[in-house]
Amino acid sequence: MNPVFRSSSPGRKIDAQVERDLGPFREAVKLPVTIPGISDLTAQVILSEIGPDMSRFPTAGHLISWAGLCPRNDEGAGKRRSTRLRKGAPWLKTALVQAAWAGMRKKASDVRAQFQRLRGRRGPKKAICAVAASLLTAIYHMCKTGTAYVDPGHNHGHKAAPTIRAKALVRQIERLGFACELKPVEPVSI
Length: 190
What we know:
Layout (H helix, E strand, L loop, with lengths): L8 H21 L10 H11 L9 H8 L7 E2 L2 E2 L9 H15 L5 H13 L1 H22 L15 H15 L15
Antiparallel strand pairs: 1-2
Helix pairs in contact: 2-4, 3-6, 4-6, 5-6
């Protein structure tokens, strides 16, 4: 019998070692999959780039900067030059931007709501990069604490928004030279 085809114990030892080493990655992949837009393959790509241990990044901002999802600050002599995204991990950046586009297509999600808020001011490309950065921030905290993602929903943060918007409108009316007073309206019951 050919010695190459015999089952040997070193092969079994290697298989056991590979299974033992892949254990933390398999557990860590279960967390990012809970975010809208991140599939199993995307989570594997993200975690293969950053690793499951977040101790090498002091803050989420350090991870975002390492990934290249933060804008450059190229300023000098009173002139502002480039604010393009920095060079970073190209596979990670691509995977996160694709996940952000996929998450944006899920209705009634916080990812879509964030994209819609930013798109009007910054345009779709800058908005999707900002969403990708917030996805990476969520993944950082999820891997650091070991908790799953809980989507706050598309109307997250809108409870205080009507009062803030009303106060801003009152200030705008006062700048035009008019007086205005805010009173809450009682709900009409039918």
